[in-house]
Queue: 2 jobs
Job 1
Amino acid sequence: MVQATNWDPELYEARHSFVWQFGQDLLDLLNPKPGERVLDLGCGPGNLTQRIADRGAHVVGLDSSAAMIGQARQNYPRLQFVLGDAAAMKFDGEFDAVFSNAALHWMLDARAVAGAIGRALKKNGRLVAELGGKGNIEHIERALESVLARYIGELPLRRTFFPSIGAYTALLEEQGLEVRMAQLFDRPTKLEGEKGMENWLRQFSWYYFEALPNREREAALREVIEELRPALLGEGGWLADYRRLRIVAARV
Ligand code: BEZ
């Protein structure tokens, strides 16, 4: 499988902790009960996995990044973390709930992932998930693509997808999940400090720049930042134009 991006757990924890901090809200929607078995899909460095465990559930964290799983094991040595690809996971009727925060949009084989989630759940088990939804980071993607088009003819393939409610719920239903709640909403997200956008681009979009010769990457990065300035730099600093798709579904 192509790695979605080269995850840098240190940069992620130092600068992008908002990813899991926003997820705490989603945790309330999951409402894990003592003794339940929960799979945290795309667990990253394990911060929310630990919070699920804090509520008394037995939790397994799964992520396809070896760096993230290494960091999760170091952060929370008492928890179980598995390195693996969600589309290929073989869990069978084992979980009361599958939880996923800000991860499903990296899993491009969405149909296979939805099928694997359905099989992993017990009957009446639930999926509680949040991912980037239709229109997510539209300004950022437009700037990346327009700057890169000036440097090279062919753009790298996108490594994320941001589905609409209709597209994603249809896919879940196809895989035997009954959608009980779906919500698409804007969540402009503050990026810390003057270098907020630069850090974000280096962490999450660097694969675009890797399509360029080394000597051109920094100049292209500056151009993307300049292009984003009018739309995403306000008085309070940089904002990422996030839109979230929140889903609750059940295996019936
Ligand atoms: C997101 O959480 O929406 C996201 C994060 C990194 C890259 C693309 C999208």
Job 2
Amino acid sequence: MTPTINILFDEQTIATRISDLAKEVAETQPQNLLVVAVLKGSFIFAADLVREMHRAGLAPEMEFIHLSSYGAGTVGSEEIRVLRDVESDVNGRDIILVDDILESGRTLKFARDRLLGRGARSVQIAALLDKPERRKAAISADFVGFACPDKFVVGYGMDMGHAWRQLPFIGYVVPDET
Ligand code: IMP
Ligand code: MG
């Protein structure tokens, strides 16, 4: 049986917000801009964001880092593993780290510290969704798409057990009545 998915943010709402986010980034006049997308969840957001950055007059280069966290649920013992690292030299560059959701903040804190440790001039965070009440690490996003209700969301790149990344909107799964 196919579960029902309620729409939280529809395609047009997402598109309009991302266009505004790109303009916000452009106003900061980044130098030698490198966009680093955190895989996998950010792939659709990052693809739309860089195209809006182009329309806003920016010329970002693009990189990817694939991170995976283990031990979720065990407070304080979560470990982050690098499955694929950024290849470009980041020294002296302004970086925008792009992710789908900022939740505990451990993933993005790890990625930011890693890039700063390699000499990035600045590392700013663009999160499509923010769940601030779930934060564990001392980190906040510099650019936020939407505040997210405390629900498990899917679509627009985000998954539940590997499913639903392909949805063009952001929604949440309504549990079966049965
Ligand atoms: P954290 O900020 O280190 O806790 O990691 C947040 C990551 O957990 C996100 O990038 C997503 O990959 C995943 N995540 C958190 N909440 C959700 C959700 O509601 N739906 C799908 N993935 C989520
Ligand atoms: Mg993620």
